[in-house]
């Protein structure tokens, strides 16, 4: 390729790249010229000018681009993308063959060798999520490569690069024949109604598959369940199908009410026998305490950051407080499923929040199970911060 832009890394950054680190960090290129436009191909060299890697220029969070290959002779063209997509598909063969699960991730950014893009599968439909202008620059080549690898009903896309990862409002349909929504997908036999052309979120977070399965299989039978930050009630549906006596779903977004009714309905659950509450979770905790309500199982799955009228919640600062509230309304021998998708802290730190919450409350606990991302959300040891999900099943005394 003739139009590669050369980036020179300092010794520390060069060593990281030699060891396999896939992100080109902002700080590493502070004092040098950058390409005029995102999507430029980069040749990354060390201080002596020796070749380290090829990558692309695309601004996303802490990085200004991703490494695509450490092979000097590798040409970044359609065939390159075909190879990467093929490799990713072959790693998901088991999921494609599993008749009980028709929604999962088929391509997970740098974990599958191309940072900045994810591809999810929904029963014959695919959703591409683009995280920078830079990677979107390659969209024609990537779609052509994708068509070469697989057939599909249709492709939809989410462009999350307006400002700081925000979603670009658009018609998300790309090609194929348009779907009818809601589309019904399955996950270990649980149904979910998804909408691929209605904003950035489709109705279910696929990274919680293992957690929903555990809640369904092992933690729900005969239990009262409180699902906080419930969104479309995916955890509530899993619990109800798993034999919960009753579920209570709490979310402050008005749309969560019809969405949760729909999620119960597509699973044949009588939603009128369940509680669906549109309320700030923190107000709900006060209400529950006042009314002496207690739950056997509480799911905490807040966003990393959220602002409501009264509260600003940041997982990194406020998780301990959230846990304390939950502990107070958990039955004896109850379970709290504490989840976070914040990449701002590690599992170790998360366990520290749990320890601190219980210390302040004076109740005893043990962590019965823990989860991070499932295999289809492929990550590598070279980029541990890519494995953002942390879930602990906390067994109370
Ligand atoms: N647990 C959900 C995903 C949560 S998404 C699932 O498994 O599908 C985060 C949700 O938190 C959003 O639906 C948002 O409306 C809700 N939310 C944010 N702040 C909140 C608050 N203070 N009280 C209640 N819900 C809140």
TrEMBL record:
Keywords: Methyltransferase, S-adenosyl-L-methionine, Transferase. GO terms for biological process: methylation. Signal peptide: none annotated. Residues 115-347 form the S-adenosylmethionine-dependent methyltransferase domain. Pfam families: Methyltrans_SAM, PUA_3. Residues 7-69 form the RlmI-like PUA domain. One of its GO terms (molecular function) is RNA binding. InterPro entries: PUA-like_sf, PUA_sf, RlmI-like_PUA, SAM-dep_methyl-trfase, SAM-dependent_MTases_sf. The keyword S-adenosyl-L-methionine applies. PANTHER family: RIBOSOMAL RNA LARGE SUBUNIT METHYLTRANSFERASE YWBD-RELATED (PTHR43042:SF3), SAM-DEPENDENT METHYLTRANSFERASE (PTHR43042). This is Class I SAM-dependent rRNA methyltransferase. It comes from Halalkalibacter suaedae.
């Amino acid at each position: 390729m003739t139009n590669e832009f050369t980036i020179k890394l300092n010794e520390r950054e060069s060593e990281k790249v030699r060891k396999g680190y896939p992100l080109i960090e902002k700080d590493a290129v502070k004092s040098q010229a950058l390409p005029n436009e995102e999507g430029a191909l980069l040749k990354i060299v060390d201080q002596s000018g020796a070749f380290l890697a090829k990558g692309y220029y695309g601004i996303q969070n802490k990085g200004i681009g991703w490494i695509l290959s450490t092979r000097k002779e590798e040409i970044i063209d359609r065939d390159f993308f075909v190879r990467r997509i093929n490799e990713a598909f072959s790693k998901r063969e088991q999921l494609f063959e599993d008749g009980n699960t028709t929604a999962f991730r088929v391509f997970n950014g740098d974990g599958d060798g191309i940072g900045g893009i994810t591809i999810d599968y929904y029963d014959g439909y695919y959703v591409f999520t683009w995280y920078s202008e830079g990677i979107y620059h390659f969209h024609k080549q990537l779609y052509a490569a994708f068509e070469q690898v697989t057939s599909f009903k249709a492709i939809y896309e989410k462009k999350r690069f307006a400002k700081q990862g925000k979603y670009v409002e658009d018609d998300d349909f790309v090609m194929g024949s348009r779907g009818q929504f809601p589309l019904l997908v399955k996950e270990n036999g649980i149904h979910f109604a998804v909408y691929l052309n209605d904003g950035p979120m489709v109705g279910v977070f696929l990274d919680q598959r293992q957690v929903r399965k555990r809640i369904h299989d092992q933690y729900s039978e005969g239990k009262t369940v409180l699902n906080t930050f419930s969104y479309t009630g995916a955890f509530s549906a899993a619990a109800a199908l798993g034999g919960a006596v009753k579920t209570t779903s709490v979310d402050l977004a008005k749309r969560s009410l019809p969405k949760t009714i729909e999620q119960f309905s597509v699973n044949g659950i009588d939603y009128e026998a369940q509680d669906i509450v549109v309320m700030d979770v923190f107000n709900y905790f006060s209400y529950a305490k006042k009314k002496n309500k207690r739950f056997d199982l509480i799911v905490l799955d807040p966003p990393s950051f959220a602002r409501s009228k009264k509260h600003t919640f940041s997982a990194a600062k406020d998780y301990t407080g959230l846990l304390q509230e939950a502990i107070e309304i958990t039955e004896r021998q109850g379970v709290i499923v504490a989840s976070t998708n914040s990449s701002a802290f590690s599992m170790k730190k998360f366990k520290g929040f749990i320890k601190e919450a219980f210390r302040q409350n004076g109740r005893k606990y043990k962590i019965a199970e823990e989860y991070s991302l499932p295999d289809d959300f492929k990550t590598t040891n070279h980029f541990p911060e890519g494995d953002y999900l942390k879930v602990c099943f906390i067994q109370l005394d």
